[in-house]
Amino acid sequence: MGDRPDSALGILDAMPQPEATLLSKGQLRRWQLLRLMAQNKCDTVFRSDSLQRVLTDYYDRHGTPNERMWKRKQTEKISEYQINDRTNAIWNSPDYHHDYIFWFIDGVMRKIERPSDKKRQAPD
Questions:
Q1: Distance between CA atoms of residues 15 and 28, nearest Å
Q2: DSSP codes, the chain
Q3: Pairing state between β 108-113 and 100-105
Q4: What is the per-residue pLDDT across 38-79, written as a single tens digit (0 to 9) for each?
Q5: Are 25 and 58 in contact (CB under 8 A)?
């Protein structure tokens, strides 16, 4: 996984869909966690955090300490990537005229100020 995440992702994706097999819930969550780790290492842009929420709910109560650590690392990384991607898209939008963006993440309000290189231009 570490050196060739694209190959690991290919192997995981080539497996029969886990939901259609007789995997236990723990085995399914483990497969999902491994796939998520490979996607992260391949710099996949995630459009939804629904899987991360499922894994967070599961690994908050189950799994080995190592799996719980992996889950925390993967979900934190995803959140930061998503925040950065969405924030940059907002700053680059000609329709957004504010100097701050507020994100509510894991129960915490974050205020992000527009960077100096993305300052709005005064109308002509």
A1: 12
A2: --S-HHHHHHHHHHSPPGGGTT--HHHHHHHHHHHHHHHHHTTPPPS--HHHHHHHHHHTTSS-HHHHHHHHHHHHHHHHHHHHHHHHHHHH-TT---SEEEEEETTEEEEEEPPGGGPPPPP-
A3: antiparallel
A4: 887 887 777 677 787 888 888 888 888 888 787 777 766 666
A5: yes
pTM greater than 0.85: no
92-101 residue pLDDT tens: 888 888 888 8
Q: Residue for token digits 């950065």?
A: 84
The one-letter amino acid at 110: R
